[in-house]
Design brief:
By secondary structure, this protein is mostly helical. The chain has helices spanning about 1-30, 35-50, 55-60, 70-90, 95-125, 125-135, 140-145, 150-165, 170-180, 190-205, 210-215, 215-225, 230-240. Helix 2 (about 35-50) crosses helix 4, helix 5 (about 95-125) runs parallel beside helix 8 and helix 8 runs antiparallel to helix 9. It starts with a helix and ends with a helix. Belongs to the glycosyltransferase 22 family. Keywords: Endoplasmic reticulum, Glycosyltransferase, Membrane, Transferase, Transmembrane, Transmembrane helix. It comes from Cuscuta campestris. It is a multi-pass membrane protein.
Length: about 240
Amino acid sequence: MAGKSESFLKLYGYDLLLGSIAAFYVFAAPYTKVEESFNVQAMHDILFHRHHLEKYDHFDFPGVVPRTFIGAFFVSILASPVVAAMSFAHLPKIYSLYVVRLVLGCITLFTLRFLREQIRKKFGYQVEAFFVILTASQFHMLFYCTRPLPNVFAFCLVNLAYGFLLKGSFYATLRCLVCCATTPPGNMISTYASFILTCSIIPIFAKRLFLQSYSDVIFYCFLLHSACNYCWYGVQTLLKQIY
């Protein structure tokens, strides 16, 4: 029995350490700030309104730029059985917020585990241990790994990309990075899979065509020249390099 517990801790001890710290932050600070509210509201609508799209919050409060539902959609699918059981038991909705944040934390830590395993295979057990100590001792990553920011969804793909890079799977690395640039922020289209995924989900929840959904981005970035002066300069530089 002792041997089984030792082998379990050897396999999953680091995951339990990082997961317990992340879970502590979830229960210590369950509420979200403005940037997280987009995905929190999206997950609420998907879980509680389901196919009744006319009840979705973003039609009444659309914001400046449409957000993609892709990250919120996948987290909601994984959290839906537990949230459905809680709804059946008439528990307060705050518990559903705990669930979706814990699910997102599990996804993030799963990708971090994949990266950690590749670090161990490439550099050894000591480097893996220092990696875990650094991750556990600094506040930022474990606090934000459960918070539904677009950058957190992208962070999961970046972890996979670095893991595949250390593994030597360069095409898998490229796929993760392209998906990271395409899916969570929804700013560019680079692969057929991401194009189909983005074009399929956004029109369903936004109730308008894909290009119409991004007309606000074009107007806000290029016609108003708001925070996107840097973006415009980058486009000009790229065009100069091409032509």
